[in-house]
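Researcher: Please generate the 3D structure of the following complex. Treat every line as part of one assembly.
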Amino acid sequence: MNDMTPTSAERAEKLEGMGCKRKRVEDVRFVQGRGNYVDDLKLPGMLYGDFTRSPYAHARIKRIDTSKAKAVPGVLAVLTAADLKPLGLHYMPTLAGDVQAVLAEEKVLFQNQEVAFVVANERYAAADGAELVEVEYESLPVVIDPFRAMAPDAPVLREDLAGKTEGVHGARKHHNHVFNWQIGDRAATDAAFNKAEVAIKELISYQRVHPCPLETCQCVASFDKIKGELTLWGTFQAPHVIRTVASLISKIPEHKIHVIAPDIGGGFGNKVGAYSGYICAIVASIVTGRPVKWVEDRIENLSATAFARDYHMTTEIAATKDGKVTGLRVYTLADHGAFDACADPSKWPAGFFNIVTGSYDFPTAHVEVDGIYTNKAPGGVAYRCSFRVTEAAYCIERAMDILAQKLGMDPAELRMKNLIRREQFPYTSALGWEYDSGDYHTALNKAMDTVGYKALRDEQKTKQEAFRRGETRDLMGIGVIFFTEIVGAGPSRNCDILGIAMFDSAEIRIHPTGSVIARLGTKSQGQGHETTYAQIIATELGLKADNITVEEGNTDTAPYGLGTYGSRSTPVSGAATAMAARKIKAKAQMIAAHLLEVHDDDLEWDVDRFTVKGNPERFKTMTELAWAAYHGVPPGMEPGLEAVSYYDPPNMTYPFGAYICVVDVDVDTGMTKIRRFYALDDCGTRINPMIIEGQIHGGLTEAFAIAMGQEIRYDEIGNVMTASLMDYFLPTAVETPHWETDWTTTPSPHHPIGAKGVGESPNVGGVPCFANAVNDAFGFLGSTHIAMPHDQWRTWTVAENLGLHA
Amino acid sequence: MAKIQIAMTVNGEAVEALAEPRTLLIHFLREQLNLTGPHIGCDTSHCGACTVDLDGKSMKSCTVFAVQASGAEIRTIEGMAAADGTLHALQEGFREMHGLQCGFCTPGMIVRAYRLLQENPNPTETEIRFGIAGNLCRCTGYQNIVKAIQYAAAKLNGVPLQEAAE
Ligand code: FES
Ligand code: FES
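Model: Done. Output below.
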């Protein structure tokens, strides 16, 4: 070795491995307009499909006349339920164990439900045809308010379920009932409330919202009659699951279905499930023998595919006088719309809502959820969320503030008092989760110190006095929250989708020159997987990230995986990647030992090479070992250097964070201004800090949108009032606040690289933080809970109702 | 519907193609000319994913008919890099500052920012935020997009901007 030899640290830096703010690989094509999204696809002879949709929320279909549509030049076919029924395809199974109408047969159950699918040789002709399908309806009474759905005389929505008193999740107690789900110790919880010195109770509703990625849902189906094979390109967050579902529904053998998810323009949960458009495009391609493209427009997207939330949570906390929580009781009415198309792990009809005890040491708790049908769009997806965790976090973080108000305690102090302590980890919650690791007090202290919490409270007090004296019309609110997420679904013992365990996978192949291709079962929709998975491999194997190609989304080449949602890519596929890399490393070590003529155990790993212990001049780099794997392996060893890992996580991971928001409210206009937003996240080991920060900015912006304006609203006859970007709030750069980000690092003890996942944390923590800030502004005037979204009109109304405009 | 011949200059090249009078410019670009950089994100002219530069103005190409753009000079994201493949300062800035995630808004965002910097080579943060208010992004929260545009402005003005995306 001479002085020119780079040190270990220098060599490590060149790899651009874990911890590096590596620039994204995928950007090179995206900034040049060379991404490859579904609608960019053009195949010879390709046709276009478009839906005729129901104008009614609940109506009987008396007659469908497709003759005028068929007469439109360019229209080749019109599909209705009558065409699908003989094929057994007029209903499709949902991920939640219900069925959903692909095309409405006898009844429509929500506005904009799919009724007919028009196929034409060009986009505009298909739209013309869809306009001309004549449907005669007889309108029926509509159920929109979830609190009226289970009235004894409520109209029967799902006639197809008549007489079915058992659903997949147990007994149905009403014709509009989907399931009842309970967890926790009811008797102990009731006892805690009977003994409680203080208790609060509040109905905390989380409004219906929609993920609304910038690219809508779309697909191209191409059936090759001669080979009997189907190729399906689509905006799929979970391509392998789509292939299995497509096979089960269509009866085409799974090996003859090729599902390809190309670049995806954002997903946020919208693109997990299967939609009517996919089935209709497949059928239309089989019928016509030509490729068929279906592209949802924005109004269809907002009104028909994949809403989220619509959870109505009656929440009670029992506590001692000095603010120690002693019990939590939550009863939730969950509005699932017309079909239960939730995308939850199959055994979890309310997702992981039982994370609702949050970050606090509740000795006992009980949760009950009733799922119900209404005349609204189906869905119930995890919008930037791990299966109802956003609902749970909003619920507990609002409730803790309400308790603090009742106790006359500072909300941060109440949290400090009840946070799970570092020495309690691994911590088993009252509702059955085992939290892997945490250092909550350190995180909250750091957050409070950084923002100068005490000074902010002093300023608020001064402002409140000035307001009371009539010297200002501005109120100042401070929102404090502490969230614990549960991500990385999940261990096969409790997580599956349609019976498939929720493992994930990675396959790594080292080429002779030491460059690499890795394929995974997940699918990036903007998270930057091509960049970050390569960083894991770079660090594990000592090969440059720039020489590693990451591929996802093609079910023919990628190993089976359950896809990307619920922040599961890093916890599950990231782990699989590390494990596959370690298999490769173990083989490389044997090759190195052979070449260096020493025993395996006499070698040690140093960044990118195996060196002989005590003799670091004798080494073999991983690049040399790659070459050797193809021509000089030890006798009896198979040549080649590749490995695959299917990783079944031993536990979920539990990222956490402390967020603080400062808002100023003008009581005369209802205008709110986010003065400051500070987010401290702990996602365990950090793979790419630049990408983590980007994820947090994006998640906070979505949280801001939800808390301050988003709502899928219906009028009383079921017209969806917010189905375009005219009415559905997506913040622009002007409204979006400035974000301050920070972190602590508490690695997950059970994850191979200690990473926990981060994509959804900011949405989970952000929503209650904004909501608590707005509530906090009005709290000193006697208001306890203001429902979201906190748009200008509602905020003005709160001030009006408090008599502030007199 | 009868088709008509439409001619325009796109990214410096004279092009001609047949389209219906009702064909939107965005569909003409994407389907007739195979320029799939500009995207479609809405039906109400809100998202800006379809933004192109038309005769020196930023234009949401879903709000004009192709025929209205007859004879126009159009630039799309595909025409932003130099002929030798060198990225435009904005394209470089978006990558350097992590100004994109899914990339769906990016072509419209960059083309809009291009016109913004033509009109105001030294914008403040507030001017940038107002300047791109017609372009929605669902992924980034805009903060790094603002930085990307500042990066490009600095570079175009010959002031190196060192601050990396934190
Ligand atoms: S597609 Fe949304 S503005 Fe043009
Ligand atoms: S990067 Fe995805 S919409 Fe902007």
